[in-house]
Design brief:
The complex is a heterodimer. In chain A, the strands form 2 sheets. A 5-stranded antiparallel beta sheet of chain A has the order 3-4-5-6-7. In chain A, 23% of the residues are buried. Helices cover 51% and strands 16% of the residues of chain A. Chain A is of the alpha+beta class. The termini of chain A are far apart. Chain B is an alpha+beta fold. Helices cover 21% and strands 39% of the residues of chain B. Chain B has a 5-stranded mixed beta sheet with strand order 2-1-5-3-4, with helices on one face. The longest helix of chain B has 16 residues. The chains are: A alpha+beta, B alpha+beta. Chains A and B meet through helix 4, strand 6 and helix 6 of A and strand 1 and strand 6 of B.
Chain lengths: 194, 76
């Protein structure tokens, strides 16, 4: 009986000729499947296309062909290569920017400060009135220190450009602001607990 | 003799040169200076080899040998 019904199910016929009919109620193949698996023998089915095709359209994901898989893998490989190229390019740009910024920083330091920076990534400087000594360390924030006469840190300051620039550019901006407009520097900077 | 303006940016700095005897070059430098100043950039003239001499510039000075323009600063 089940084989007979199955043959009928796969045809385009809307009515069975084998003496068995399946009623979908709402003409839904989902309902048909439930009914199919029930013991009822008094239902009817009027699907107008191959039930199996309709069934699989709704419920089965098509298997990927070999060609499609190869195309997908090739696309992924290309995306990975483009990503790696972009990362390498950005790294090179960052390194190039850092070199330019270092050259500019050196151009606004005296020889002693240049030597200090090369040795310890920090330099000391006097305020314009030569009454206070600061140390500016390599860094973006909290890198400016007010020193006492013994070289101990009295206060730290946090101030940096609003735009993203290489670290050494930050040091240039901090140095020039301290030299030319210390009052404004101290007004803008946040004090950090030393 | 070429004068120089270094604008601090992501690339390190972008340089703009001008000849103080060439009005068209001065005009370009001045316009750039004014535009950046309006955006809040801080301008400093730099004299000598160590940056210790110089002043804050509020207006473009075509005679300044070297000008550094830094983005506005903020507390961190």
């Amino acid at each position: 009986m089940a084989a007979t019904i199955w043959r009928n199910w796969l045809t385009s016929a809307s009515t069975t000729t084998y003496g068995v009919t399946i009623d979908s109620g709402t003409n839904s193949c989902m309902n048909n499947w439930v009914l199919w698996n029930s013991v009822s023998t008094s239902a009817t089915c009027t699907a107008t296309s191959h039930a199996w095709t309709v069934w699989n359209t709704a419920h089965v994901v098509a298997e990927e062909t070999r060609e499609a898989r190869e195309a997908r893998e090739a696309r992924n490989a290309q995306l990975q290569a483009e990503n790696a190229e972009r990362i390498a390019r950005e790294k090179q740009e960052r390194e190039s920017a850092a070199k330019r910024a270092l050259i500019l920083l050196m151009s606004v330091l005296n020889r002693r400060q240049q030597k200090q920076y090369q040795e310890s990534k920090a330099f000391t400087m006097l305020s314009a009135d030569r009454k206070r000594r600061y140390r500016i360390k390599h860094g973006w924030a909290g890198n400016v220190e007010l020193l006492d006469t013994r070289g101990r840190v009295k206060q730290k300051y946090c101030i940096h450009p609003r735009e993203t620039v290489p670290i050494e550019d930050n040091l240039v901006a901090q140095r020039l602001m301290l030299l030319r407009n210390e009052q404004e520097f101290l007004r803008v900077a946040n004090r950090v607990y030393a | 003799m070429k004068h120089e303006m270094a604008i601090l940016d992501r690339t390190g700095d972008t340089k703009l040169m001008w000849d103080k005897d060439k009005p068209d070059e001065i005009e370009v430098a001045r316009n750039t200076f004014d535009t950046l100043r309006k955006k809040g950039y801080l301008a400093y003239s730099v004299q000598g080899k160590s940056g210790e001499k110089g002043e804050v510039l509020r207006e473009f000075d075509p005679k300044a040998e070297k000008i550094i323009l830094a983005p506005a600063m903020q507390g961190g």
